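Quick log. Single chain, no ligands specified.
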Amino acid sequence: MSISSYQELMLPVLRVLDKTGPIHTRDCAKLVGDYLGLSEQDLQEMLPSGTQSYLLNRTGWACWYMQQAGLVARPKRGFCEITEEGRKLLAQNPSHIDGKVLANYPSYVERVLKQKAAQVSPDQEGSLNGTNLKTEGASNLIALSAYFQPPPSAL
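-> predicted structure:
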């Protein structure tokens, strides 16, 4: 089994955080690996840079994006914990958590989607896939959440 994308790790990360309380991201990644039944080889597979494992990197990204939506908090450097909003989402028994789910949270729209929409290049003339970003408002930013993902090299 290979390491999932950071979006596919969001639900397992939130479930782990629900059981542990505040935990270091490194320890969270290990517990997520155990939760998913990853092999030792999968757990130790490193990014091309050699600076960290894929699992730790993607766990960190999953925590960061969920933090922007208010599902996860960072009580201190390197640590993460589930918030009450995260517990509410888990109580709904979601089948997955991804950018489309996070786009339902106003803080995510404000912190992530609007910022990325502002970075659209001038040659795109304020539109993206036929949507006018300047005049059609934040509701369309929610629909665009799947478009705005970090490049594969950031994973």
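The mean pLDDT is 83.
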